[in-house]
Amino acid sequence: MTYLFTKNGCGKCDWVKKQVDLNEIEDVKVMQLDSDNSDALALLAYFECVALSEKKLPILVSKDREIMTSVGDIRNYLVNLNA
Fold first, then answer.
1. Average of pLDDT values for 48-61?
2. pLDDT digits (tens, 9 = 90+) for 36-54
3. Which residues, other chains included, contact 38 with Cβ-Cβ below 8 Å and sequence gap of 6+?
4. Residue 30 has what pLDDT?
5. How many CA atoms lie within 13 A of 52 on its CB side?
6. Residues 34, 59: Cα–Cα separation, whole Å
7. d(Cα 62, Cα 31) in Å, to the nearest integer?
8. How far apart are alpha carbons 78 and 46 in whole angstroms?
9. How high is the mean pLDDT of the chain?
10. I need a surface site. Which of 28, 30, 58, 72 has the fewest CB within 10 A?
11. CATH: 3.40.30.10, 3.30.420.40, 1.10.443.10, 3.40.50.720. Which one for 2-82?
């Protein structure tokens, strides 16, 4: 499973979500980071990305556990998943 961590009000997060139809990709789970979503926060901690999320969003963690923060890299990865 690939995880895409995003947050409301994040322009870069919104850009990635507009560039790729995430509903068409089965292997991606979007995790909305907010105080009500303990599962997203727990996964973020599991992947050791809490400190990173305080500086950069979105964060993509691939099924191979590669961590990406560049919106261009994230977009390209997701497009290739859907190909």
1. 97
2. 899 999 999 999 999 999 9
3. none
4. 96
5. 18
6. 14
7. 13
8. 22
9. 94
10. 72
11. 3.40.30.10
Q: What amino acid is encoded at 77 in this protein?
A: Y
Query: For residue 71, which amino acid is it?
Result: V
Tokens describing residue 44: 């973020």
What whole-number distance in Å separates Cα of residue 37 and Cα of residue 70? 24
Give the count of alpha carbons within 13 A of 12, CB side only. 18
Instruction: Give the burial string for 1-33 (b: 16+ CB within 10 Å, else e).
Output: ebbbbbbeebebbeebbeebeeeebeebbbbeb
Tokens coding 23: 């509903």
Structure-block tokens of residue 53: 């999320």
From its phi and psi, is residue 56 left (phi > 0), alpha (psi between -120 and 50) or beta?
beta
Residue at 72: amino acid letter: G
